[in-house]
């Protein structure tokens, strides 16, 4: 792992702005934080090189796209050691409705975020795609009601 | 609703949000002017809200990530609101989600290391209001993170 870069207040301000809107140009960023366009651009480049800025994510209104239901699944695998984690991870990642897959320690082995059109569609994904995955022993579901993302410690 | 061309545009943009207008039009198989007009309309309708930079907290030295699953004392009328208000004051909380199910609230929390996590847990988390039960899931690895949907 590389060294943690030293961030100053200007870097933090840039990160906060880009976390809200990754499409901001270097000139707009510069205006907001009091830098020239080339200086803002150099700082963003540096944050990208340091791996702090790790790409972009599209912000879509899923409900308007017809995905009315988001469910978090806690998946427990059975007979550990016999099930290949790599096989499970490959298979679960290939399901289009599965948005995120996280390997966790605790009550479950994996935490999945699933986007579905409605509860009936979710049930189809759960029964046909998730429950049929290799090694799945137990699945716990929680339907997302609201979600708030915060800027984090910057 | 969306037609096929809209879906192609969003599909390509989901796969790579950094695409320029010209590249996007080419990959979606429509001409640049049409593509631009459709993007504008998707923004006006609020379907496409924009794009957000992904911050890699590990690169900033936050090596620990924990899901805190909270069951609330629901006899308190404002339990959800009070908990969310207090959680928002903790800089290391990245996500506040509410659920229908066994879990009422999930807090996504990051920490520099286990010692830092322990300190946050004792001083900031256990002191949050109206918690009836709390369990922690330690994140080991992110296997899939793109958060795309099948369009």
TrEMBL record, chain A:
GO cellular component, one term: cytosol
GO molecular function: sequence-specific DNA binding
GO biological process, one term: regulation of DNA-templated transcription
Domain of life: Bacteria
PROSITE patterns: HTH_ASNC_2
Gene3D superfamilies hit by this protein: 3.30.70.920, Winged helix-like DNA-binding domain superfamily/Winged helix DNA-binding domain
A Pfam family this chain is assigned to: HTH_24
Residue ranges occupied by any HTH asnC-type domain in the UniProt entry: 7-68
Keyword terms of this UniProt record: DNA-binding, Transcription, Transcription regulation
SMART domains: HTH_ASNC
Keyword Transcription regulation on entry: yes
Protein's name in the database: AsnC family transcriptional regulator
UniProtKB/TrEMBL annotation, chain B:
InterPro entries: AsnC-type_HTH_dom, Dimeric_a/b-barrel, Tscrpt_reg_AsnC-like, Tscrpt_reg_AsnC/Lrp_C, WH-like_DNA-bd_sf, WH_DNA-bd_sf
GO annotation terms (biological process): response to amino acid
Acyltransferase as UniProt keyword: no
Location of the HTH asnC-type domain: 2-63
A GO cellular component annotation in the UniProt record: cytosol
Keywords: DNA-binding, Transcription, Transcription regulation
One Gene Ontology MF term: sequence-specific DNA binding
SMART domains with a match to the protein in the record: HTH_ASNC (SM00344)
Signal peptide range in chain numbering: none
Name of the protein this chain belongs to: AsnC family transcriptional regulator
Species: Primorskyibacter flagellatus
């Amino acid at each position: 792992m590389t060294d943690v870069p030293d961030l100053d207040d200007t870097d933090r301000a840039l990160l906060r702005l880009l976390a809200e809107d990754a499409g901001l140009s270097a000139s707009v960023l510069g205006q907001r934080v009091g830098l020239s366009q080339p200086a803002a651009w150099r700082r963003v480049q540096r944050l990208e090189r340091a791996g702090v800025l790790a790409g972009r994510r599209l912000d879509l209104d899923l409900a308007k796209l017809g995905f009315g239901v988001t469910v978090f699944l806690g998946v427990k695998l059975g007979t550990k050691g016999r099930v290949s984690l790599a096989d499970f991870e490959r298979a679960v990642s290939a399901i289009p409705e599965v948005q995120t897959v996280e390997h966790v320690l605790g009550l479950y082995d994996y935490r999945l975020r699933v986007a579905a059109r409605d509860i009936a569609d979710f049930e189809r994904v759960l029964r046909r795609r998730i429950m049929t995955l290799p090694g799945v022993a137990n699945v716990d579901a929680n339907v997302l009601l609201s979600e708030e993302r915060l800027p984090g410690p910057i | 609703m969306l037609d096929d061309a809209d879906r192609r545009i969003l599909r390509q943009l989901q796969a790579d949000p950094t695409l320029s207008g010209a590249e996007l039009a080419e990959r979606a198989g429509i001409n640049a002017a049409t593509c631009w007009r459709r993007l504008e309309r998707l923004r006006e309708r609020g379907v496409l809200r924009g794009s957000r930079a992904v911050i890699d907290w590990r690169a900033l030295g936050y090596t620990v990530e924990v899901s805190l699953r909270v069951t609330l004392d629901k006899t308190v009328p404002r339990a959800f609101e009070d908990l969310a208000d207090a959680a928002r004051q903790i800089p290391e909380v990245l996500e506040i989600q509410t659920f229908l199910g066994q879990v009422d609230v999930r807090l996504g929390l990051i920490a520099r290391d286990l010692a830092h996590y322990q300190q946050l847990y004792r001083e900031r988390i256990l002191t949050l209001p109206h918690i009836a039960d709390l369990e922690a899931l330690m994140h080991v690895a992110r296997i899939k993170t793109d958060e795309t949907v099948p369009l």
